[in-house]
Known about the structure:
The chain has five helices and no strands. The chain is mainly alpha-helical. The chain has one domain. α1 crosses α2 and α2 packs across α5.
Amino acid sequence: MNEETKNAGENLDLSVFVDRIMEEKKFPEDLGEEVLSQIKADLLSKVEDRVNSVIISNLSSEKLEEFNKLLDQNISDEEIQKFCSSNIPNLSQLIASELIIFKQSYL
């Protein structure tokens, strides 16, 4: 899976989601911006991986093959979202559930 799938659900702003988690985690104030930026980057990467996993695990093998071909064509995020939404029933709920699980395990 590549970078383009990071928001393949429903226009999710995963960066805002990660910001909220970091606020709730209440890191020590003396960590510094560089450390906090690295933590955010790591969290964002993990969240993107979880969303990608939900997408992959809910596509049939035929649709997954079709999806990979679309990604190779460098299609827009909107086209990726449309494909995923039309081929995965309840995609938003699946992603929301995964994000809740991630948040609970992190906090």
